[in-house]
Amino acid sequence: MSLSAIMGSTAPLRLRGVEGEAGVSLPLPPNWTVQQLRLRLRATASSALTTGSLAVSVNGHVVGQVPLDGRSPRVEADLDVPPDVLRHGYNDVRLQAVQHHTDRCEYPLAPELWTDVDLTGSSFSVKHTLTAPPTRLDRLEDLFSRLTWAPRVVLPVLTPRPASAEMLTALNLVAQGVGQRLDYVPVQLRTGRLPPGLASLATSLPADAPGIIVAGRFADLASVLPPNVPRNRGPIVSLQHVPGDDTRFMVVFAAETEQDLRLAAAAFAMPAMPWPDTPWAAVASIRMPPLGSVTGVAASLKPSTQAYPLSALGYRTATLKGLQSGGTTLRLWHDAWQGRIQTRVHASYTAGMAPQSALNIVANGVVHGSIPLSEPAGGSYDNYAVSLPAGALRPGWNTLSFEPALVPQTRGGECQPFFPGNLAVTVYDDSTIQTFGGSPMRRPDLALLAQSGRPTPGAPVGVGMAVQLAAGDDATVGAAMTLMAKLTQVFKGPLLRTQMAIGPVEGVRHGIWVGALGQLPAAVRNAAGIGSEGELVDAVPLIQSSSVAVLEGGDTLQALRRHIEDFDAAPSVLSAGVTLRPGPSNRALAATALVRDAPMTVFTAPTPATLEAAIGTLVAHGPWSQLKGDRATWRPGEETVQTHSAEDAPFTAYSLRGGLGLWISQYPWTSLFLLIVLLALLVWFTRKALDIYRRRHLPPQPAQRRDDGARS
Asked: Which of 324, 376, 326 is nearest to 350 (CA)?
């Protein structure tokens, strides 16, 4: 596994300064017994280095050192990691570079002090044996482990017969339980039939499948249930090894009827479920809170003041230290157009820093404020306000970063002392964020679903949401379960009230359709922009416009607040309709639209098999992060997703008068010249029009003779 796969980036990792350091978290699954682990390290050192070394440590133990020399900048080394320093879970791998460019009075922050680690060329290789997974339900988290080295987990889901309506309800909850346990690891669920004989079951599984899931009635699962499991205690969840392969697990959901399977699957989908340390357990009953209390709690979480602490976003108080602390970043949800945000920062910093030190507030990569850390004795800010303008935010998820620039009192070099140990600033989690109005964005967007796992921020645990299948074949069901597992992962919890059914579901506020092109209802195809013959009927955005109120004269502060918080309308879009034939032959399509004021999203492909493969490709990190707009297309097995939306159109936030006023203020002399030309043309056209009118409507006038000599 390459370091780029671990860190999620292909850019080189740069170690700067006299003491450059970076960390990598190496996962080791709980069922691995490591025999040999080797790090293949590839790096490039600055040619200005005179001497240096790159040390690699694992869990605090130095496992190897590599010399750095500017005369031979290419670094290639293979380091063996002793198995006794490793542990199951995440292992802390540190890359520590000590670099020098002179032997006297060195400037510790000299720009020529660097070493680039090639994340793509550097990798870990392992030799290990698999141990039998424990057949205890309290170890379920170890079985569905996110510590895998595989880019995705493939998990077969076997049933004795094709999925019925009751079975789909259970499979929907099973997919949610698998998705949230694997956390950020992409998972593809494939449905199929349970074979009558289990002797060949192990050999028929995919090579990268850690186990299987089986669901059905007691009468159909006699061959896979232990003989001591009672049938009269309610739905059963059982854990055992796959027959013929003790290194893989088999989770069995069984009940007297398929309708009762919902209880066992719902218990499996709930986070932090206290399972017993036994191979099986019966789920006697589940009491879900009433729907009214669910929506009521969700509504109470919306503060009336529109202000909330950073802790509500998952941020925890952090101390940022050193010259290259890197800062801290959190995600911020914003669902308004032209709404602005103000953050009030609570921070403390240490004594002895140079007055150039500062804490920068960055939103979506743009600096919007800087908090000075200039007092020699250190200090604290309790409520430092920084405003983020409307144009800096986008609908959906935004990034908010606190990036310190900590400068020591002396820069080193020229034989001056250099003390970086006192460089530190703490940003507390009781710092607050306050929003100021704007107009809600009602236009559906694939990015909102991809980033939050639900259509709108206010829909708690999937209320009013349904995954509707165009058909009940195994490929379509597998695609829907894979999609549901991904939505659970991005939602960071189970969507317990989300329905899954074949065909339309009544009373749905947001419907997700999954099915092949030819199997989708005509109304769904039309809403998704698909013609009766599979051709694409596309709305290409040409211009997006809106009108923004501008205050003039002696308006009061109250009027200003009213205009800031209330907008008449969100931007409107002017589009052109285009029909393309033929439709996609081997590409999948995701589209979203507003139908009767309710969002509807469609995932489709020419065939169910293509759709299943395409959804398996889409849920990977790269393709999923590319979803946005109202339409996306991609090929199974390819990383690139093509999207388009109204955001692709030119945008103007001014009326005709406002636009002309802005242009005139930017080009005054050109505007004056054009005004003079316009007045001259107006005078000319006026005289011309009067002359034409006189000739057409007035009688000819006799010429008057002037005889000055006849005058007395």
From this structure: 376
Least confident of 311-325, 435-449, 498-512, 619-633: 435-449
Say whether the peptide bond before residue 582 is cis (omega within 30 degrees of 0): yes
Closest by CA to 644, choosing from 575, 702, 701, is 575
The mean per-residue pLDDT over the stretch 389-404 comes to 81
Dist CA 276 CA 127 (whole Å): 33
Record the tokens describing residue 303, joined without a space.
Answer: 């503060």
Structural element, H or E, at residue 182: helix 165-182
**Packing angle, helices 261-269 and 165-182, rounded to 10:** 20
Cα–Cα distance for residue pair 155/585, rounded to 1 Å: 28
What's the pLDDT at 304?
45
In one letter, which amino acid is 506? E
Q: What are the DSSP E strand ranges found in 323-395? A: 328-334, 336-337, 340-349, 358-363, 366-372, 379-388
Q: What pTM was estimated for this model as a whole? A: 0.79
Q: Name, of 295-309, 609-623, 678-692, the range with top average pLDDT.
A: 609-623
Q: What is the percentage of the chain residues whose pLDDT exceeds 90?
A: 46
Contact 142, 32 (CB under 8 A): no
Residue entry with tokens 């020529």: 112
Residue-level pLDDT at 442:
61
Residue 226 pLDDT grade (very low, low, confident, very high; cuts 50, 70, 90): confident
Contact 96, 65 (CB under 8 A): no
Cα–Cα distance between 236 and 520 in angstroms, integer? Answer: 36
For residues 294 and 290, give the distance between their C-alpha atoms in angstroms, rounded to a whole number: 7
Phi, psi of 64 (to 5 degrees): 175, 155
CA distance 395 to 399: 12
With b for 16 or more beta-carbon neighbours within 10 A and e for fewer, the 309-329 pattern comes to ebeeeebeeeebbebbbebbe
Query: What does the alpha-carbon distance between residue 668 and residue 474 come to, in Å, rounded to a whole number?
Result: 68
Q: Pseudo-torsion of CA 415, 417, 421, 425, nearest 10°? A: -100
Residue 564, judged by CB atoms within 10 A of its CB (0-12, 13-18, 19+), counts as middle
Give the Å distances, CA to CA, from 417 to 98, 109, 249, 355, 409: 18, 13, 61, 17, 9
Which 8-state DSSP code applies to residue 91? E
Phi, psi of 679 (to 5 degrees): -65, -40
User: Distances in Å between the alpha carbon of 115 and those of 10, 58, 395, 526, 594?
Assistant: 16, 20, 39, 56, 52
For the segment 659-683, the average pLDDT, to the nearest whole number, is 78
User: Where are any strands of DSSP class E within 243-313?
Assistant: 245-255, 280-282, 307-309
Region 341-356 average pLDDT: 91
Kindly state the tokens that stand for 651. 């945008």
Q: For 673-689, give the secondary structure using H, E and C.
A: HHHHHHHHHHHHHHHHH
Q: Are 434 and 312 in contact (CB under 8 A)?
A: no
**Concatenated DSSP letters of 154-171:** EEEEEESS---HHHHHHH
C-alpha distances out from residue 173 to 161, 167, 180, 498, 556, Å: 18, 10, 11, 9, 55
Residues 644, 391: Cα–Cα separation, whole Å: 21
Q: Which of 371, 383, 388 is nearest to 334 (CA)?
A: 388
Q: With bands split at pLDDT 50, 70 and 90, how would you rate the model's confidence at 596?
A: confident
